[in-house]
């Protein structure tokens, strides 16, 4: 990848500056995409913003800026957005700073102060060419301090094009299409690319970069949007009663695995109701993947206390509850004595068959037996 320095004066940077909120921010006579539409918010605090302007007036160097050179000759700002917006907002008269003991906005500057500000040179590096992996590695290196980009924002900086523009118009706008459809099912902020990242993770089975690379030149993100809507509509049909535990579930993988199966929503809905009342289940969020997969790992079932485990261990005289059926090699007579730490507590009657986590339902098995035991 080619990375070349190009000093840019503030007067050139702020030419044609427009801030359209979530619609995007542009400058440099419209050629610099300061904040691609819906990519991220301005997050500097007033003190940080003021310090940028103070640095300019003191003629101290600011950290370097990185601009991506697009195929059409325009630019997309990779690193330095907060400093760029601070400078542009000051030049637009949006705030004032303490300058030599006086609060001054840009319009209050003297002619020489104004020229000093406008002639300040920013050290900008133009980034061109290079493989996607090379670009991503470089972007991650320079994104080690300050207001960091998210992983998805870094990927967006690489795979620019019509596909990404369309995808962000749907997934990256607060109050946008994805927000309106699925906000109660997703976590994170759309403007920080959380919704787009989630949808991409689902459709790509986790290979987001590969999917974006394959579709970068597509005219639109129709495939992604159709898949996402299919997932959410399936969730709504399968679980019509909404609960807060449904937010942030891995709905994409669950849809992939179970949407073709003949599952009666009324039946699993009634089961969800019962499980929500079960005090044996610590992880209520796990109920949803459990009723589809039947894998108890999602439930974090209540564990026996240390006292209950110790009581059972002593009652069994430190031996495995399986006796002569014990799986540990060399324990065919069932008389082998185990250390307490080498045994696991187990439900005599499994939770799936109504067993409770009580002292009366606790037995100690050697590790080999417990690992070989299913819900028998």
What does this protein structure show overall?
The structure is a single chain. With 376 residues, this protein is α+β, with helices and mostly antiparallel strands. It is built from 16 helices and eleven strands. The chain has four domains: 2-158, no CATH class; 159-245, no CATH class; 262-302, no CATH class; 306-372, no CATH class. The protein has a seven-stranded mixed sheet. Strands 7-8 form a two-stranded antiparallel sheet. A hairpin with a 5-residue loop joins strand 2 and strand 3 (25-27). Helix 9 crosses helix 10 (208-215), helix 9 crosses helix 11 and helix 11 crosses helix 12. The mean pLDDT is 90.
A few lines on this structure:
With 376 residues, the chain is α+β, with helices and mostly antiparallel strands.
List keywords for this structure.
4 domains, 16 helices, 11 strands, 376 residues, two-stranded antiparallel sheet, 14% strand
Note the topology.
Blueprint: E1 2-9, H1 10-13, E2 18-19, E3 25-27, E4 32-35, H2 46-57, E5 65-69, E6 75-79, H3 81-91, E7 97-99, E8 102-104, H4 111-118, E9 121-128, H5 132-142, H6 151-158, H7 162-171, H8 177-182, H9 194-204, H10 208-215, H11 222-238, H12 251-258, H13 265-276, H14 287-293, H15 306-315, E10 343-347, E11 362-366, H16 367-372
Parallel strand pairs: 4-6, 5-9
Antiparallel strand pairs: 1-9, 2-3, 3-4, 5-6, 7-8, 10-11
Helix pairs in contact: 2-3, 9-10, 9-11, 11-12, 13-14
């Amino acid at each position: 990848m080619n990375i070349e320095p190009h000093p840019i004066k503030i007067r050139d940077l702020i030419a044609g500056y427009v801030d359209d909120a979530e619609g995007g921010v542009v400058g440099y006579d419209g050629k610099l995409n300061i904040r691609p539409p819906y990519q991220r918010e301005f997050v500097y605090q007033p003190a940080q913003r003021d310090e940028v302007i103070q640095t300019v007036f003191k003629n101290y160097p600011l950290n370097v800026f990185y601009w991506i050179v697009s195929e059409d000759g325009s630019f997309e700002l990779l690193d330095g957005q907060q400093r760029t917006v601070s400078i542009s907002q000051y030049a637009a008269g949006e705030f004032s700073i303490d300058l030599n003991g006086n609060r001054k906005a840009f319009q209050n500057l003297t002619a020489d102060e104004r020229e000093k500000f406008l002639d300040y040179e920013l050290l900008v590096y133009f980034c061109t060419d290079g493989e996607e992996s090379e670009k991503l590695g470089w972007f991650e290196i320079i994104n080690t301090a300050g207001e960091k980009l998210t992983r998805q924002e870094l990927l967006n900086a690489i795979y620019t094009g019509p596909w990404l523009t369309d995808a962000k118009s749907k997934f990256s706008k607060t109050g946008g299409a994805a927000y309106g459809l699925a906000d109660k099912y997703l976590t994170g902020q759309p403007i920080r690319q959380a919704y787009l990242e989630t949808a991409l993770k689902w459709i790509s089975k986790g290979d987001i970069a590969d999917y974006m690379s394959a579709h970068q030149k597509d005219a639109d993100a129709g495939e992604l949007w159709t898949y996402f809507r299919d997932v959410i509509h399936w969730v709504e049909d399968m679980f019509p009663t909404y609960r807060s535990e449904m937010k942030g579930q891995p709905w994409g993988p669950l849809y992939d695995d179970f949407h073709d199966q003949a599952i009666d929503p009324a039946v699993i809905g009634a089961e969800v109701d019962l499980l929500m009342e079960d005090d044996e289940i610590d992880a209520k969020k796990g109920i949803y993947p459990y009723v589809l997969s039947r894998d108890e790992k999602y439930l974090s079932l209540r564990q026996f206390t240390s006292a209950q485990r110790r009581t059972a261990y002593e009652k069994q005289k430190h031996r495995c509850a399986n006796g002569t059926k014990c799986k540990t090699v060399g324990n065919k007579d069932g008389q082998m004595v185990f250390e307490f730490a080498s045994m696991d507590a187990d439900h005599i009657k499994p939770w799936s068959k109504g067993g409770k986590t009580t002292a009366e339902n606790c037995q100690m098995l050697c590790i080999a037996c417990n690992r070989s035991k299913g819900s028998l």
